[in-house]
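A reminder from the course coordinator: this example appears on the midterm review sheet, so study it carefully.

Given structure:
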């Protein structure tokens, strides 16, 4: 890292069981699980001066529902589990989040069959997906326009920079370190 004392980094690494490189959401969540669930001494190294400096704080903050994944796949299962756990984490720590749902709109006739396939896939993945008419979906989102839509109430948004900061605090509280 730029500006870091090499001796300090070596000392931190010697006191850790595991080093994680990158303090984005994936790195922090991995380190958090290792520190809190598996009781490992973890150090997270980040080249930037703060956690979640790139994609993790510049995304739309979506909590994905699992609508698009093949039913029964690891992606579908992990997305569902991750959605539930993210909402629980935000609630437990008082972090901004909103399970506001989303709509997926078909704007052309040739998209209607794909929209129906998505509806069926969502139902198979345990989502409460409903098909909507234009009048129904414009009642939810007045600026939307199209032929039909799906409402997926399980989708939401979260303040991922705050999630990252909280993960970093919990890693430190569990005896780990986040070195920015």
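Designed residues:
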């Amino acid at each position: 890292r730029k500006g870091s004392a090499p001796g300090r980094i070596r000392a931190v690494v010697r006191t850790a069981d595991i080093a994680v490189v990158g303090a984005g959401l994936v790195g922090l969540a991995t380190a958090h699980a290792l520190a809190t669930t598996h009781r490992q001494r973890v150090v997270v190294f980040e080249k930037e001066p703060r956690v979640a400096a790139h994609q993790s704080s510049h995304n739309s903050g979506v909590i994905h529902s699992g609508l698009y994944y093949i039913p029964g796949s690891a992606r579908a299962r992990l997305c569902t589990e991750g959605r539930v756990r993210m909402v629980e984490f935000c609630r437990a720590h008082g972090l901004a989040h909103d399970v506001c749902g989303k709509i997926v709109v078909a704007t052309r006739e040739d998209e209607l069959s794909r929209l129906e396939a998505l509806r069926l896939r969502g139902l198979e993945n345990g989502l409460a997906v409903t098909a909507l008419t234009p009048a129904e979906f414009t009642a939810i989102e007045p600026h939307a326009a199209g032929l039909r839509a799906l409402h997926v109430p399980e989708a939401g948004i979260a303040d991922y920079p705050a999630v990252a900061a909280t993960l970093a605090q919990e890693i430190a509280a569990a005896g780990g370190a986040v070195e920015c």
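The beta strands are 18-21, 42-45, 62-63, 97-98, 102-106, 130-132, 148-152, 156-158, 177-179. The radius of gyration is 20 Å.
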